[in-house]
Amino acid sequence: MTTLDAAGVTDPGQVRAQNQDTFFVSGELVLIADGMGGYAGGEVAAAIAAEVVEASFAGNETPTGLESAVLDANRRIFERGVEPGLEGMGTTLVAAGMVRSDGGTRLLVANVGDSRGYLFRDGGLRQLTEDHSVAAELVRLGRIDEGEGAEHPGRHVLTKVLGVDRDVEPDLIEFEPLEGDRLLLCSDGLSNELDDEHIASLLRVGSPSDAARALVAAANAHGGLDNITAVVADIVDGSASPAEPSTMAVPVVLPRDRTLSTPAVARSAPALAVRPVLSRWERFLRRREDLRRRRAYNKWVSFRGVVFLLAFAAVLVGGFAVLRWYGTQNYLVTLRGDRVVVIQGRIGGFLWWHPRIVLRERYGPGQLPTQVRPGLFQGIDEASFADAKHFIDTMHRQWAIAHGLITVPSTTTTTPAVSANFTTTIYVPTTTAPRTGGT
Ligand code: MN
Asked: What is the pTM of this model?
């Protein structure tokens, strides 16, 4: 069975007090994480990346297993990035796993950031990963050449980091591992100090552990401006050489020889040792934007809630008003006992609105014209109390006139013609059908 014989070395370098790089090696998986952000953040982010990827990949050693392990790590770091002192923390991650599928065993490299994966095969060195830095993107776009890219101030500004955003898309590089292949994973503290030729020469000899030590020592000797980490893994056929079982290696930290340290000022660009993935200012802006978005969301939620409640209340009130209008705004001229009455409401009531008598005349149906009497038994609808009252008065007056009980009022100066007109307009001819109801 094809497996990895791997060893790793990490060192804080000659300038940094802390080491925010970390690595993990086993027979199935090797990885490097180069953390960044705050005093503690970088170390925490890198540690989470290593732990989560290792745990998540174990038992799910497939191409999708490695990718989802990386996404798990991203999520975990992002979630913990809200804790005080850990705000905006992130890490690079380059991980190589032996993945099993129908096609046999393959090697899958997942990458986020500017740590690197190299394949050393048949004496030649090939960089497997692409850096996710501003300078590297510009080189890929053809805006600047590689020489310019190596000096570009954007070479330390990452375009992709694990744990800084909710989502991340790692680059995935898969290939068939061959016996004798040697894999190198390293942080930028190594690749910034050593060129490919130098790296290849140190990979050519010795065990993985020897090669890793030699690489880190060389980077330190060259300046060691950043934390330096190297993981060297040989592809071996485990069934052929059952020698020692691969286990998780305890990070080998080279003893620091301060006398070898090169003063930072001696370097051409010491400022580049500071690696602002997100500057303090950018982090501040991002955090503020995040807060604002959250606040806007809360505001939106409560605003929507209020609008909903108001709309709901309006529907209730509106519906009630309509029902009340239907139940009460109706006037009926009818009879109660031997009296002519006006009832407000519906006959028999409607919901909790009961009909009530709002006017009781002193007379009965006998003192209204004959033709309206059948209608009174059923009830004659009127739109308002005034209409109802007007109807009764008019009818009663007609009856009184018809029976000679009153004479048409010749109100002061009005002419007889007007009086006659008045009489004819209000008189319901006996030949016409009853005004309402009844047959
Ligand atoms: Mn670094």
From this structure: 0.56
